[in-house]
Amino acid sequence: MSPSKTPVKLGLLYSSTGVTSVVESQQRQAAILAIEEINHAGGLLGEELLYAGNDTRSLPSGFRAEGERLFAEDKVDALFGCYMSSCRKAVLPSVSGHKSMLFYPTHYEGFEYAQGCIYSGAAPNQNAKWLADFMTQTYGSRYFLVGSNYVFPYEINRLMRDLLSNRGADVVDEVYIPLAAGRAEIDDVISRIKQNDPVIVFSTLVGQNAVDFYRAYDKAGFDRTHTPICSVTSGEPEMAAIGPDAAEGNIKVAPYFSVIDSAANQRFVTHFRDRFGDGAALCAEAEAAYFQVRLFAEAVTRAGTTNRDAIERILPTFSLEAPQGMVRVDAKTNHTVLWPRVGVANAQGTFDIVREAPSPVIPAPYLIELDDPEDVSAADLTEQYP
Ligand code: ACM
Protein backbone atom coordinates (compact mmCIF):
# COMPACT_ATOMS: atom_id res chain seq x y z
CA MET A 1 0.00 0.00 0.00
CA SER A 2 1.48 3.36 -0.96
CA PRO A 3 1.58 5.99 1.79
CA SER A 4 -1.17 8.56 1.87
CA LYS A 5 -0.86 12.02 0.41
CA THR A 6 -0.47 14.47 3.28
CA PRO A 7 -1.76 16.54 4.92
CA VAL A 8 -4.95 14.53 5.45
CA LYS A 9 -8.09 16.63 4.96
CA LEU A 10 -11.59 15.82 6.26
CA GLY A 11 -14.83 16.97 4.63
CA LEU A 12 -17.44 17.96 7.24
CA LEU A 13 -21.09 17.69 6.15
CA TYR A 14 -23.19 19.45 8.77
CA SER A 15 -25.97 22.04 8.61
CA SER A 16 -25.90 25.37 10.41
CA THR A 17 -29.31 26.33 8.97
CA GLY A 18 -32.55 24.45 8.38
CA VAL A 19 -34.72 21.99 10.28
CA THR A 20 -32.00 19.81 11.86
CA SER A 21 -29.36 22.50 12.46
CA VAL A 22 -30.26 22.42 16.17
CA VAL A 23 -28.40 19.10 16.47
CA GLU A 24 -26.08 19.24 13.43
CA SER A 25 -24.37 22.37 14.74
CA GLN A 26 -23.38 20.40 17.89
CA GLN A 27 -22.19 17.51 15.69
CA ARG A 28 -19.95 19.87 13.72
CA GLN A 29 -18.50 21.34 16.93
CA ALA A 30 -17.77 17.84 18.26
CA ALA A 31 -15.97 16.87 15.03
CA ILE A 32 -13.90 20.06 15.18
CA LEU A 33 -13.04 19.32 18.83
CA ALA A 34 -11.69 15.89 17.84
CA ILE A 35 -9.64 17.43 15.00
CA GLU A 36 -8.19 20.08 17.32
CA GLU A 37 -7.31 17.46 19.95
CA ILE A 38 -5.55 15.34 17.32
CA ASN A 39 -3.60 18.39 16.15
CA HIS A 40 -2.72 19.30 19.72
CA ALA A 41 -1.24 15.80 20.10
CA GLY A 42 0.94 16.16 16.95
CA GLY A 43 -1.47 15.84 14.00
CA LEU A 44 -1.94 12.89 11.65
CA LEU A 45 0.84 11.21 9.65
CA GLY A 46 3.18 13.92 10.88
CA GLU A 47 1.17 16.89 9.61
CA GLU A 48 -1.70 19.07 10.77
CA LEU A 49 -5.09 17.44 10.19
CA LEU A 50 -7.15 19.80 8.00
CA TYR A 51 -10.88 20.13 7.42
CA ALA A 52 -13.35 21.93 5.18
CA GLY A 53 -17.12 22.02 4.74
CA ASN A 54 -19.86 24.61 4.20
CA ASP A 55 -23.45 24.73 5.50
CA THR A 56 -25.48 21.85 4.01
CA ARG A 57 -28.82 23.56 4.90
CA SER A 58 -30.61 20.39 6.18
CA LEU A 59 -31.46 19.48 2.59
CA PRO A 60 -30.50 16.29 0.67
CA SER A 61 -29.60 18.48 -2.34
CA GLY A 62 -27.36 20.64 -0.11
CA PHE A 63 -25.53 17.53 1.17
CA ARG A 64 -25.14 16.03 -2.31
CA ALA A 65 -23.72 19.28 -3.76
CA GLU A 66 -21.40 19.98 -0.84
CA GLY A 67 -20.12 16.37 -0.82
CA GLU A 68 -19.29 16.63 -4.53
CA ARG A 69 -17.66 20.02 -4.01
CA LEU A 70 -15.52 18.74 -1.13
CA PHE A 71 -14.18 15.90 -3.31
CA ALA A 72 -13.68 18.07 -6.41
CA GLU A 73 -12.33 21.31 -4.93
CA ASP A 74 -11.01 20.53 -1.46
CA LYS A 75 -9.73 17.06 -2.42
CA VAL A 76 -10.83 15.69 0.95
CA ASP A 77 -9.79 12.18 1.99
CA ALA A 78 -13.16 11.23 3.53
CA LEU A 79 -16.51 12.73 4.50
CA PHE A 80 -17.87 13.00 8.04
CA GLY A 81 -21.47 13.87 8.80
CA CYS A 82 -25.14 13.77 7.74
CA TYR A 83 -28.05 13.68 10.15
CA MET A 84 -31.24 12.80 8.26
CA SER A 85 -31.18 9.45 6.44
CA SER A 86 -32.40 11.21 3.30
CA CYS A 87 -29.19 13.28 3.36
CA ARG A 88 -26.95 10.23 3.90
CA LYS A 89 -28.64 8.50 0.97
CA ALA A 90 -28.07 11.60 -1.20
CA VAL A 91 -24.32 11.54 -0.45
CA LEU A 92 -23.55 7.80 -0.75
CA PRO A 93 -23.41 7.59 -4.59
CA SER A 94 -20.61 10.16 -4.79
CA VAL A 95 -18.75 8.48 -1.87
CA SER A 96 -18.86 5.26 -3.87
CA GLY A 97 -17.91 7.01 -7.14
CA HIS A 98 -14.81 8.49 -5.50
CA LYS A 99 -13.95 5.14 -3.76
CA SER A 100 -13.95 7.22 -0.57
CA MET A 101 -15.61 6.96 2.83
CA LEU A 102 -18.52 8.50 4.75
CA PHE A 103 -18.46 8.33 8.54
CA TYR A 104 -22.12 8.69 9.56
CA PRO A 105 -22.68 9.70 13.22
CA THR A 106 -26.46 9.45 13.57
CA HIS A 107 -28.85 6.69 14.72
CA TYR A 108 -30.88 5.47 11.77
CA GLU A 109 -33.40 2.88 10.53
CA GLY A 110 -30.94 0.08 9.64
CA PHE A 111 -31.26 -2.17 6.58
CA GLU A 112 -28.26 -0.64 4.82
CA TYR A 113 -24.67 -1.51 3.99
CA ALA A 114 -22.63 0.66 1.63
CA GLN A 115 -18.98 0.08 0.95
CA GLY A 116 -17.01 2.92 2.50
CA CYS A 117 -19.82 3.94 4.87
CA ILE A 118 -19.07 3.54 8.58
CA TYR A 119 -22.17 3.84 10.78
CA SER A 120 -21.19 5.13 14.24
CA GLY A 121 -24.73 5.90 15.50
CA ALA A 122 -27.17 3.33 16.83
CA ALA A 123 -28.85 0.66 14.70
CA PRO A 124 -32.45 -0.26 15.70
CA ASN A 125 -31.36 -3.20 17.88
CA GLN A 126 -29.28 -0.69 19.89
CA ASN A 127 -32.09 1.82 20.49
CA ALA A 128 -35.66 1.03 19.24
CA LYS A 129 -35.65 -2.44 20.73
CA TRP A 130 -34.48 -1.12 24.12
CA LEU A 131 -37.10 1.63 23.98
CA ALA A 132 -39.90 -0.86 23.17
CA ASP A 133 -38.88 -2.93 26.21
CA PHE A 134 -38.72 0.11 28.49
CA MET A 135 -42.00 1.65 27.29
CA THR A 136 -44.07 -1.51 27.55
CA GLN A 137 -42.59 -2.47 30.94
CA THR A 138 -43.05 1.04 32.38
CA TYR A 139 -46.02 2.83 30.84
CA GLY A 140 -48.68 0.71 29.22
CA SER A 141 -50.00 -0.69 26.00
CA ARG A 142 -51.49 2.14 23.84
CA TYR A 143 -49.11 3.99 21.51
CA PHE A 144 -49.40 6.99 19.17
CA LEU A 145 -46.68 7.28 16.49
CA VAL A 146 -45.79 10.72 15.12
CA GLY A 147 -42.94 11.43 12.71
CA SER A 148 -41.45 13.89 10.26
CA ASN A 149 -42.31 13.11 6.66
CA TYR A 150 -39.17 11.37 5.29
CA VAL A 151 -37.57 7.94 5.17
CA PHE A 152 -36.28 7.40 8.74
CA PRO A 153 -39.60 7.88 10.59
CA TYR A 154 -41.53 5.59 8.21
CA GLU A 155 -38.94 2.83 8.52
CA ILE A 156 -38.49 3.03 12.29
CA ASN A 157 -42.27 3.10 12.78
CA ARG A 158 -42.58 -0.05 10.67
CA LEU A 159 -40.15 -1.73 13.08
CA MET A 160 -41.69 -0.16 16.17
CA ARG A 161 -45.11 -1.54 15.24
CA ASP A 162 -43.62 -5.06 15.23
CA LEU A 163 -41.67 -4.51 18.44
CA LEU A 164 -44.80 -3.20 20.23
CA SER A 165 -47.05 -5.89 18.86
CA ASN A 166 -44.57 -8.60 19.98
CA ARG A 167 -44.89 -7.11 23.48
CA GLY A 168 -48.71 -7.12 23.49
CA ALA A 169 -49.11 -3.37 22.83
CA ASP A 170 -51.24 -1.54 20.22
CA VAL A 171 -50.63 1.41 17.92
CA VAL A 172 -53.76 3.60 17.95
CA ASP A 173 -52.66 6.07 15.26
CA GLU A 174 -49.64 6.94 13.08
CA VAL A 175 -49.20 10.43 11.60
CA TYR A 176 -46.53 12.35 9.69
CA ILE A 177 -45.98 16.09 9.37
CA PRO A 178 -43.86 17.97 6.80
CA LEU A 179 -40.31 18.98 7.77
CA ALA A 180 -41.49 22.55 7.25
CA ALA A 181 -44.62 22.06 9.39
CA GLY A 182 -46.21 25.12 10.96
CA ARG A 183 -48.55 25.64 13.90
CA ALA A 184 -51.63 24.17 12.16
CA GLU A 185 -50.04 20.76 11.49
CA ILE A 186 -48.69 20.54 15.07
CA ASP A 187 -52.10 21.52 16.53
CA ASP A 188 -53.76 18.86 14.41
CA VAL A 189 -51.47 16.16 15.86
CA ILE A 190 -52.19 17.40 19.39
CA SER A 191 -55.97 17.13 18.77
CA ARG A 192 -55.57 13.58 17.45
CA ILE A 193 -53.61 12.64 20.59
CA LYS A 194 -56.38 14.21 22.72
CA GLN A 195 -58.97 12.12 20.88
CA ASN A 196 -57.02 8.96 21.80
CA ASP A 197 -55.87 10.02 25.29
CA PRO A 198 -54.30 8.36 27.25
CA VAL A 199 -51.53 7.22 24.88
CA ILE A 200 -47.77 7.06 25.05
CA VAL A 201 -46.24 9.01 22.15
CA PHE A 202 -43.39 7.52 20.13
CA SER A 203 -41.88 10.48 18.25
CA THR A 204 -39.66 10.29 15.20
CA LEU A 205 -39.92 14.03 14.66
CA VAL A 206 -36.54 15.62 14.02
CA GLY A 207 -34.96 19.00 14.74
CA GLN A 208 -37.34 21.97 14.78
CA ASN A 209 -40.36 19.65 14.18
CA ALA A 210 -39.59 17.99 17.52
CA VAL A 211 -38.96 21.28 19.32
CA ASP A 212 -42.35 22.68 18.19
CA PHE A 213 -44.22 19.46 18.99
CA TYR A 214 -42.69 18.92 22.46
CA ARG A 215 -43.59 22.55 23.36
CA ALA A 216 -47.18 22.06 22.17
CA TYR A 217 -47.46 18.75 24.08
CA ASP A 218 -46.39 20.54 27.26
CA LYS A 219 -48.81 23.40 26.65
CA ALA A 220 -51.68 20.96 26.10
CA GLY A 221 -51.09 19.67 29.65
CA PHE A 222 -50.52 15.93 29.04
CA ASP A 223 -49.23 14.07 32.11
CA ARG A 224 -45.65 13.12 31.20
CA THR A 225 -45.18 10.89 34.25
CA HIS A 226 -47.69 8.44 32.72
CA THR A 227 -47.78 9.41 29.04
CA PRO A 228 -44.37 10.84 28.10
CA ILE A 229 -43.03 11.47 24.62
CA CYS A 230 -40.52 8.69 23.92
CA SER A 231 -37.91 8.78 21.15
CA VAL A 232 -34.53 7.63 19.94
CA THR A 233 -33.98 11.08 18.48
CA SER A 234 -34.53 14.13 20.71
CA GLY A 235 -31.74 14.81 23.21
CA GLU A 236 -30.07 17.67 25.01
CA PRO A 237 -29.84 20.15 22.09
CA GLU A 238 -33.58 19.83 21.42
CA MET A 239 -34.35 19.97 25.20
CA ALA A 240 -32.31 23.19 25.45
CA ALA A 241 -34.39 24.68 22.61
CA ILE A 242 -37.70 23.46 24.12
CA GLY A 243 -36.82 24.61 27.64
CA PRO A 244 -36.09 22.02 30.39
CA ASP A 245 -39.40 22.59 32.24
CA ALA A 246 -41.42 21.81 29.12
CA ALA A 247 -39.32 18.71 28.36
CA GLU A 248 -38.94 17.12 31.80
CA GLY A 249 -40.15 13.51 31.97
CA ASN A 250 -39.75 12.70 28.27
CA ILE A 251 -37.63 9.68 27.31
CA LYS A 252 -34.72 9.13 24.92
CA VAL A 253 -32.87 5.86 24.26
CA ALA A 254 -29.32 6.38 22.98
CA PRO A 255 -25.77 5.17 23.59
CA TYR A 256 -24.65 8.46 25.14
CA PHE A 257 -25.83 11.08 27.62
CA SER A 258 -23.64 13.87 28.96
CA VAL A 259 -24.07 12.65 32.57
CA ILE A 260 -22.17 9.36 32.01
CA ASP A 261 -19.82 8.97 34.97
CA SER A 262 -16.41 8.12 33.51
CA ALA A 263 -13.04 9.80 33.16
CA ALA A 264 -13.26 9.67 29.35
CA ASN A 265 -16.64 11.42 29.38
CA GLN A 266 -15.54 13.95 31.99
CA ARG A 267 -12.66 14.88 29.66
CA PHE A 268 -14.98 15.14 26.64
CA VAL A 269 -17.60 17.29 28.39
CA THR A 270 -14.97 19.58 29.93
CA HIS A 271 -13.10 20.07 26.63
CA PHE A 272 -16.37 20.60 24.72
CA ARG A 273 -17.66 23.23 27.15
CA ASP A 274 -14.26 24.94 27.45
CA ARG A 275 -14.18 25.23 23.66
CA PHE A 276 -17.83 26.00 22.85
CA GLY A 277 -19.28 27.52 26.03
CA ASP A 278 -20.90 26.37 29.28
CA GLY A 279 -24.34 26.17 27.70
CA ALA A 280 -23.22 23.82 24.90
CA ALA A 281 -25.62 20.84 24.86
CA LEU A 282 -24.17 17.40 24.18
CA CYS A 283 -25.98 14.40 22.74
CA ALA A 284 -25.33 10.92 21.32
CA GLU A 285 -25.16 12.24 17.77
CA ALA A 286 -22.45 14.78 18.77
CA GLU A 287 -20.51 12.17 20.74
CA ALA A 288 -20.49 9.89 17.68
CA ALA A 289 -19.40 12.83 15.49
CA TYR A 290 -16.47 13.21 17.92
CA PHE A 291 -15.36 9.61 18.36
CA GLN A 292 -15.69 8.70 14.67
CA VAL A 293 -13.02 11.29 13.79
CA ARG A 294 -10.76 9.67 16.40
CA LEU A 295 -11.58 6.19 15.02
CA PHE A 296 -10.58 7.34 11.52
CA ALA A 297 -7.38 9.00 12.76
CA GLU A 298 -6.35 5.87 14.67
CA ALA A 299 -7.06 3.71 11.61
CA VAL A 300 -5.02 6.04 9.35
CA THR A 301 -2.14 6.00 11.85
CA ARG A 302 -2.16 2.19 11.94
CA ALA A 303 -2.59 1.78 8.16
CA GLY A 304 -0.29 4.66 7.12
CA THR A 305 -2.80 5.60 4.41
CA THR A 306 -6.34 6.94 3.91
CA ASN A 307 -7.09 4.32 1.23
CA ARG A 308 -10.68 3.12 1.68
CA ASP A 309 -10.02 -0.60 1.52
CA ALA A 310 -7.10 -0.39 3.96
CA ILE A 311 -9.13 1.69 6.43
CA GLU A 312 -12.15 -0.64 6.21
CA ARG A 313 -9.86 -3.61 6.87
CA ILE A 314 -8.12 -2.08 9.87
CA LEU A 315 -11.07 -0.40 11.64
CA PRO A 316 -12.51 -3.61 13.16
CA THR A 317 -9.11 -4.66 14.54
CA PHE A 318 -9.02 -2.21 17.47
CA SER A 319 -11.26 -0.71 20.15
CA LEU A 320 -11.38 2.94 21.11
CA GLU A 321 -12.30 4.53 24.42
CA ALA A 322 -15.19 6.82 23.49
CA PRO A 323 -17.05 9.00 26.02
CA GLN A 324 -19.87 6.37 26.07
CA GLY A 325 -17.40 3.48 26.75
CA MET A 326 -15.23 1.23 24.59
CA VAL A 327 -16.46 1.05 20.97
CA ARG A 328 -15.36 -0.87 17.89
CA VAL A 329 -16.46 -1.14 14.26
CA ASP A 330 -18.06 -4.51 13.49
CA ALA A 331 -16.29 -6.18 10.55
CA LYS A 332 -19.46 -7.86 9.22
CA THR A 333 -21.66 -4.76 9.00
CA ASN A 334 -19.47 -1.57 9.15
CA HIS A 335 -21.74 -0.53 12.05
CA THR A 336 -20.39 0.10 15.56
CA VAL A 337 -20.59 -1.85 18.80
CA LEU A 338 -22.34 0.58 21.21
CA TRP A 339 -23.83 0.91 24.72
CA PRO A 340 -27.66 1.36 24.77
CA ARG A 341 -29.01 3.55 27.60
CA VAL A 342 -32.46 4.84 28.60
CA GLY A 343 -32.58 8.49 29.72
CA VAL A 344 -35.37 10.55 31.31
CA ALA A 345 -35.21 14.31 30.68
CA ASN A 346 -34.78 16.27 33.91
CA ALA A 347 -35.34 19.88 35.01
CA GLN A 348 -31.64 20.71 34.50
CA GLY A 349 -31.83 20.07 30.74
CA THR A 350 -29.90 16.79 30.93
CA PHE A 351 -31.10 13.18 31.21
CA ASP A 352 -31.13 10.82 34.20
CA ILE A 353 -29.95 7.41 33.05
CA VAL A 354 -32.46 4.85 34.36
CA ARG A 355 -31.30 1.74 32.50
CA GLU A 356 -28.12 0.78 30.67
CA ALA A 357 -26.74 -2.22 28.85
CA PRO A 358 -24.37 -4.18 31.11
CA SER A 359 -22.05 -4.76 28.15
CA PRO A 360 -21.64 -3.29 24.66
CA VAL A 361 -24.17 -4.46 22.07
CA ILE A 362 -23.19 -5.80 18.65
CA PRO A 363 -25.04 -3.97 15.82
CA ALA A 364 -27.70 -5.95 13.93
CA PRO A 365 -28.75 -3.47 11.21
CA TYR A 366 -30.78 -6.07 9.31
CA LEU A 367 -32.61 -7.37 12.40
CA ILE A 368 -32.58 -10.73 10.69
CA GLU A 369 -34.72 -12.08 13.48
CA LEU A 370 -36.31 -9.05 15.04
CA ASP A 371 -36.46 -10.25 18.63
CA ASP A 372 -33.72 -12.87 18.51
CA PRO A 373 -31.59 -12.69 21.71
CA GLU A 374 -28.59 -12.72 19.31
CA ASP A 375 -29.47 -9.08 18.51
CA VAL A 376 -28.30 -8.01 21.93
CA SER A 377 -25.24 -10.22 22.12
CA ALA A 378 -22.34 -8.63 23.93
CA ALA A 379 -19.08 -7.70 22.30
CA ASP A 380 -15.70 -8.34 23.81
CA LEU A 381 -13.80 -5.05 23.62
CA THR A 382 -10.61 -5.95 25.33
CA GLU A 383 -8.06 -4.02 23.32
CA GLN A 384 -7.37 -0.62 24.85
CA TYR A 385 -6.90 2.51 22.79
CA PRO A 386 -3.30 3.64 23.29
C1 ACM B 1 -32.22 9.96 10.87
O1 ACM B 1 -32.84 10.41 9.87
N1 ACM B 1 -31.39 8.95 10.72
C2 ACM B 1 -32.41 10.55 12.18
Comma- or semicolon-separated keywords:
Rossmann fold, binds acetamide, five-stranded parallel beta sheet, 12 helices, 17% strand, single chain, alpha/beta
Short description:
With 386 residues, the chain is of the alpha/beta class.
Descriptive overview:
The chain has 386 residues and is of the alpha/beta class. It folds into two domains: 190 residues, Rossmann fold (3-Layer(aba) Sandwich); 178 residues, Response regulator (Rossmann fold). The protein is built from twelve helices and 15 strands. The strands form three sheets. Strands 7-6-8-9-10-14-15 form a seven-stranded mixed beta sheet, sandwiched between helices. Strands 2-1-3-4-5 form a five-stranded parallel beta sheet, sandwiched between helices. α2 runs parallel beside α3, α4 packs across α5 and α7 crosses α8. The radius of gyration is 20 Å and the shape is globular. The protein starts with 8 loop residues before the first strand and ends in a 30-residue tail after the last strand.
Bound molecules: acetamide
Q: What radius of gyration results from the CA coordinates?
A: 20 Å
Taken in chain order, the helices and strands follow as: EHEHEHEEHEHEHEHEHHEHHHEEEEE
> Number of helical runs?
12
Distance between the terminal alpha carbons, to the nearest Å? 24 Å
What's the main sheet like?
A: 7 strands, mixed
Number of domains: 2
How many strands appear in the DSSP assignment?
A: 15
Strand residues, percent: 15-25%
Name of the CATH homologous superfamily of the largest domain: Response regulator
CATH topology call of the largest domain: Rossmann fold
